[in-house]
Amino acid sequence: MVAAPRASGTDCTPSFIVVEGPIGIGKTALARRLADAFQSDLVLESAQDNPFLERFYRDRKSHALPLQLFFLFQRAQQIEVLRQEDLFSPVRVADFLIDKDRLFAEINLDQEERDLYEQIYAKLEIDAPKPDLVVYLQAPADVLISRLQARGNPHEQQIERGYIEQVAERYASFFYAYDDSPLLIVNAASIDPVNNDVDFNALFEQISTIRSGRHFFNPVAAAIG
Question: Which helix (H) or strand (E) holds 46?
């Protein structure tokens, strides 16, 4: 793959970029490629390090709370690292918002478990840095399922379609109301910015210039129009 040229100057380039979206959308792969293009630090959530993940996919109800708490502590620690490194990197790219933790807690936990989760969350006093840009990758459930199948992870093959649909819908609702940072909503159903240089360069150019507001990246629709 040919990396896009790094954006010139620092006035327009966001200094903290977060790539987000539902499971299977390709957020981690895009975050890696953006970090390469910006020659920046990369902060990734390490889902594979969660010892409860495989058990959760087999039996969501029984293992939801330990799964969620492990992710909460892990993400809180990563955010602390982000804050400590704030002065040392002109651009940083991450593949998660701490807000996603509550999003999944609402989906996965029953009321009593959510109450306990919220108590622990409050005790952690997480002070997350505000992104200069959030890139939200959006696609329907059929696309997410197809990409999960293509990845070939045996644990992910156990995820029920209904759960994927629920996660995708919750992400859409969350970002419909999101206004904490500039937001770029990307129609990721028909493009491949990870493996296609044309798609990546077009997306990279837009990311490099956004400083405020809500924006949409839908090159297929633009080409048809």
Answer: none
Query: For residues 215 and 186, what is the distance between their CA atoms, to the nearest angstrom?
Result: 9
218: left (phi over 0), alpha (psi -120 to 50) or beta: beta
pLDDT along the chain (225 residues), means of 10: 41 83 94 93 89 92 96 92 68 91 95 97 91 95 92 83 95 95 94 92 92 88 44
Cβ-contact 209, 12 below 8 angstroms: yes
Q: What is the rounded CA–CA span in Å between residue 92 and residue 133?
A: 11
Query: How far is it, in rounded angstroms, from Cα 75 to Cα 64?
Result: 16
Residues 6+ apart with CB under 8 A from 32: 42, 44
The residues that bridge with 133 in the sheet, in sequence order, are 17
3-class DSSP state of 187: strand
Contact 110, 60 (CB under 8 A): no
- With a threshold of 0.90, does the pTM exceed it? no
Nearest residue to 20 via CA among 64, 75, 73: 75
Residue-wise pLDDT tens digits, 28-42? 999 999 999 999 889
Q: How far is CA 84 from the centre of its chain?
A: 21
